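Async update (no meeting this week)

Hi team, since we skipped the sync, here's where things stand on the single-chain job. The sequence we agreed to prioritize is pasted below, unchanged from the tracker. I ran it this morning and attached the output directly underneath so nobody has to dig for it. Comments welcome in thread, and please keep replies under the output.
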Amino acid sequence: MANGDDSEQVRELQARLKQLKLMTVAPTGFYGSKTTAAVKSFQSKNALTASGSVDDATWKKIQKLTKKPTADELRPPTVNEADAPDPRCMTGRVMCISKESRTLAWMIDGKIISTMDVRFGSENTPTREGVFKVDRKEKDWVSTLYHTPMPYSMFFSGGQAVHYSADFAARGYAGASHGCVNVRDKGKLAAVFGEVQAGDKVVVYW
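Output:
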């Protein structure tokens, strides 16, 4: 397993690293910077080559020192813990969106005002990464491509928007978007929608 992987085995790895208190975020199944750092830390403490990738020796050692994760450990019912903000989120008014921790943080001048769980597009319809601006806001929008409701839409890259998803609220991470950033907490998103203005920054990062 290595940086960029996305699998159930990675989810298990993250749950085991959490048991070892090397990770604090909930398992997501995506191997990003936090997982790499946690693996490196484990390898350094256990006289293994600190590559940040999981080879056979590292995986066997992690398995030996942990127990098989429970269903709740693999998919905790609690909301995701926000990632450390990307440096590009630290100035101005920003929706700071981490793919690894699956969170959106609404930030003003480096201070987190609100955080919420999000999900992203599938491999076929990925959510674009980078720095964008809110082009427009639509409180009641229906997708012209997929004909599904997209309440509280804040468009930032072509047809991609941050919006509430009833499907996400019902199914969680069993589904995916068509590239948009789905939010499952309607109340939290409605409050942020009221504050965000056209031109505010959107940062999507791993």
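Quick observations from my side:
The CA atoms of residues 64 and 168 lie 35 Å apart.
Residues 33-45 form the longest helix (13 residues).
Reply here if anything looks off.
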